[in-house]
Write a structure and sequence with these properties.
This protein is an alpha/beta fold and 472 residues long. Helices cover 37% and strands 15% of the residues. β1 and β2 form a beta hairpin. It comes from Jimgerdemannia flammicorona.
Length: 472
């Protein structure tokens, strides 16, 4: 086996450091340390490190691999010849190892790339490949007992199966090379939250359709004291796209969501929570946790927990359908015509395409006033140019995503290396001068500020917040 390179060793050390930092709970400088993981408290670095290495190796490997996953793609392939699918299902899997082996064998033969995570609680997958290969995979998995209850098979006599398939597998056009390889793994959770004993029920518990969610968002606008629109994704996802007025946790990993809930419990007790995520998998587990956590608060008002079925992906597909209806002179006169989709920016996705919007040409909304296509994020370097394209920090021990405009790339970072902050840049530049690659020993400024924001609590979004930031 080849010896790991210096950069790979640095990425491994940084993955461990980042994992431990995310679970460090001490705010008092006099405390030697206090880490919380898997519901247990560890008071020494040695004890928590031993636990992490023995119980969380898969997460560490994924964090290390994440430092090299591409977030941009340059390819001459015609994307219309290929398809990317995204799906999940919380359903008992009797033999995860066998199910994973079947997946690896079939996907390899079909030439598919992507990531598949299988656990006793279900399956989470995103795959890319040429259209015939994706179609073959969808036919196979739709007939598998794990998905049998979804009535997705082409043999189903119900003529609506095609639409059910579309909503479930969430296909989109994209180059077959948006993933560098195929990764199939058996894991403890298909979407790691780290709450022992939490069970996600099968069925449509609290799920609402895009049309229903749209109606609820309008009610939330009119009655902000009765509703909370909650983004269950990570901060870098909500930074470039979100629903107007959403509360966006400044968390870096989904596993930090329970702590965020506990710190902000009073913000949603007795209200109607409208939760959403990219495709539904995180939201489904997050809402299960919210029900478990909030419903047992003594003396508290009952909280209603709802989630967007199919996530942002299916919501934007629904909006596109409404857009097509409005382009029809007959349909456009209907009283139900949508003026504002209430979505802002782009939907972050975990492949080299990076994000999807309502209009891939960059205009994203209707001419009658929808702001869906407006870039809502700013270059992190100059803070004067709107930017929604990420690049990765060039620090050997950092893979944070950075928004950097073309002007800053050509100017400050003319050598092609973009850094998330001056700490990473200094550490990398000094290493280059010394001819070594080092894992960063201190937390970078942007990550330190994010953690401070995470401890403070809620992050609102919307016009009123932008006005406050501008001094309005």
């Amino acid at each position: 086996m080849p010896k790991p390179s210096a950069r790979e060793r640095a990425a491994k050390r940084q993955a461990i450091n980042t994992f431990l930092e995310a679970r460090h709970q001490s705010n008092d400088a006099s405390e030697a340390g206090r880490w919380v993981c898997c519901g247990k408290v560890y008071v020494t670095l040695e004890s928590v490190s031993r636990h992490v290495h023995s119980q969380h190796q898969i997460e560490l490997d994924e964090m290390r691999e994440g430092s090299s996953d591409p977030v941009t793609l340059t390819c001459a392939c015609d994307p219309t010849f290929s398809t990317v699918i995204l799906f999940y299902k919380y359903v008992p899997v009797s033999d995860p190892l066998l199910f994973a082996a079947h997946h690896h064998d079939l996907c390899t033969r079909l030439g598919l790339t992507g990531k598949i995570r299988i656990a006793a609680e279900g399956i989470n997958a995103t795959l890319a490949g040429i259209n015939p290969s994706i179609a073959s995979y969808v036919d196979w998995i739709s007939r598998h007992p794990v998905l049998a209850a979804g009535r997705l098979s082409a043999e189903d006599p119900d003529t609506a199966f095609t639409r059910r398939r579309h909503l479930f597998f969430k296909p989109s056009s994209g180059c077959a090379h948006v993933f560098p390889s195929l990764s199939v793994r058996v894991v403890d959770e298909i979407c790691p939250l780290g709450v022992p004993g939490l069970r996600v029920k099968e069925g449509a518990d609290g799920k609402v359709s895009p049309a229903e969610f749209f109606g609820l968002l309008k009610k939330a606008r009119e009655n902000p004291g009765e509703y909370v629109c909650l983004d269950t994704r990570n901060y870098y996802e909500s930074r470039i796209g979100r629903f107007d007025g959403a509360l966006c946790p400044p968390i870096r990993r989904f596993g930090a969501f329970p702590d965020f809930v506990e710190r902000n419990r009073a913000a949603w007790e007795g209200k109607t929570v409208l939760a959403y995520c990219t495709g539904g998998i995180r939201c489904e587990k997050a809402t299960a946790y919210l029900r478990q956590s909030l419903s047992h608060t003594e003396g508290a008002l009952r909280t209603k927990i709802l989630m967007l079925d199919g996530g942002i992906h299916n919501y934007l597909e629904w909006v596109k359908e409404q857009q097509q209806l409005q382009s029809d002179p007959v349909s456009a006169t209907r009283s139900s015509a949508i003026i504002d989709s209430l979505w802002r920016g782009r939907n972050y996705i975990f492949d080299a395409r990076q994000s999807l919007g309502l209009d891939e040409k960059g205009k994203g909304g209707w001419e009658n006033g929808d702001d869906a296509g407006v870039i809502i994020s700013w270059c992190q370097i100059c803070a004067v140019t709107r930017e929604d394209r990420y690049t990765k920090c060039a620090g050997a021990s950092c893979h944070l995503l950075v928004l950097c405009c073309d002007e800053c790339r050509a100017g400050r970072y003319a050598d092609g290396k973009v850094f998330c902050c001056e700490v990473c840049e200094r550490w990398e530049r000094e290493g280059e001068e010394q001819g070594v690659i080092r894992a960063r020993k201190e937390m970078c400024r942007c990550e330190r500020e994010r953690k401070e924001e995470e401890r403070r609590g809620m992050v609102r979004t919307g016009v009123e917040v932008e006005m406050e930031a501008l001094g309005g």
